[in-house]
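Lecture 7, part B: from sequences to assemblies.

Below are the input chains for today's worked example.
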Amino acid sequence: MKIAIDVMGGDFAPQELIAGAKNYLQENDDAGLILVGDEKIIRELWSDLPEKCEVFHTDEVVEMGEHPLHALRQKKNASVAVCARLVKQGKADGFISAGSTGAQMAASLLELGKIKGIERPAISVMLPTSGDSGVLILDVGANVDVRASHLFEFALMGSAYYEKICNVERPKIGLLNIGEEEAKGNELTKAAYAILKDSSLNFIGNVEPDRLFQGKANVVVCDGFVGNILLKTSEGLSETMQGAMFKAAMSLGQETVAQFKNSIKKFSPSSPEYSAAPLLGVNGVSLVCHGKSKAPIISNAIKLAVSCAKSNYVDLITKELTKNS
Amino acid sequence: MKIAIDVMGGDFAPQELIAGAKNYLQENDDAGLILVGDEKIIRELWSDLPEKCEVFHTDEVVEMGEHPLHALRQKKNASVAVCARLVKQGKADGFISAGSTGAQMAASLLELGKIKGIERPAISVMLPTSGDSGVLILDVGANVDVRASHLFEFALMGSAYYEKICNVERPKIGLLNIGEEEAKGNELTKAAYAILKDSSLNFIGNVEPDRLFQGKANVVVCDGFVGNILLKTSEGLSETMQGAMFKAAMSLGQETVAQFKNSIKKFSPSSPEYSAAPLLGVNGVSLVCHGKSKAPIISNAIKLAVSCAKSNYVDLITKELTKNS
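Predicted structure of the full complex, as structure tokens:
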């Protein structure tokens, strides 16, 4: 088992990507790593590179501002493209990147292609709930204008992923909506409801955002515009609230601050499934890391990539597609 | 100046509605009140009804589960319909209700009608930010499938309301989106961007949800589906987070709890503009209160209704429409 790492992408690349790879190898030995990036820089930062860690040299990288497709056409050996290619060629079993999400989506589509039967791959993220298990939301930004059949694809892919990665049989699937009743919502959600109701999935109906954080469903689907708004609303509000509360805690002393940091740990869970967002629907394991990810998150993302590769959720998606076709 | 109060609507009706009216009259004398509801119940709860407080008897009420239009057709004297009618007839200068939002929207449309030139009235709410001023979001649920021209209407109405109620000249108008660049978003937001850019409004471009909570814009527009998701995500997450933090504070003693309650006051602001959601675009002042509103909020909502009636934002909307037609 080998995982490719795009060490050139991300706000803290290559340092934190390389540090994350180191962390991973210190604690785990079930996968080898392929560091994709500038070999000179990599060897400067990690002089005693262990045997389990290969380097694939490339000095091309897609920068954050660049148009993904234009950039990939000009830079055939952009680090993110090389990572996807290694997976395609069977030289790696999955890859992670913290660079441009658009470029990673484009590279994954170009190199790995889509799973047969899937029209719209989607970005999915796991969010914490007040319950014991997280909720997987998709799409959170890859597809801003979709049809009801795409929401069904998202549900099917999310279900297969959640089943394999979280070990839950027939995960509960919800449709993100502004009311619980079947008749609620816009044209898109009403049409999607009808499809989901008749599918083989464990569809539990509409889920409102407030119930979502209570862990009502395991997987919740929505179009990429709405999903991205939901994600950024959660991030923005959670930062704003944490800021105000820390300020209050500071005036009460260090012990209080520590106590509070502890109380909000739930909102920054440390288990691997929260560390990266899988691109579901592409024909291979491609995990998007947040641009701001530091070494511990990167190390977790590698663990998640290993679980993904072992679980073979891609096969389960194909099977479920057949069942519903 | 008179404000009509639907004392029959809301989770804590009629008690908290009547208590809110009492609170208001204890502290303010710039408006008389008309309590709309079952006179017998009202007089039981408030035996020494002051002169400034009239009663308009009706024993009909739209229940929460009922279909708004069906219910209003059968119950001509439903409390919410009577309130809207009093405003239409000039016997009240505005009204508030904590009952079914759908019924209030329908009653407002049937009795008051729309402002000439407005196709889609919208529900707007003020949310707190980490800055000094709140941000008005619309639509948050009245219109789930809209065109770009409707988002422009929302912007124009929100601008007029914010200018009058928050005393800000040419409020900054943002378009809720998943990226800041003009080309970002779905078909709807791209089309709306083009219209807003060429309008007389103080349009500052796209606003992502995380920047929204930083107070980047005064008014942010979106379709009612997305706005409702944003609102419920904020409510749900904020409750979940507050729950976890209070739990932590409890173990540190009463003083800590008090300190923390104080730190999150910002997220439940006590000034009137946060107490109710104006239905903008209907031809009169109609304020939606949360179903769970208790007396202090109701009292604030009455204050807001008075400000709204005095400010005459309805006229400003009409003027702005002419400027942009």
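Note for the exam: Chain B touches chain A through 54 residues (CB under 8 Å). Keep this in mind when comparing with the next example.
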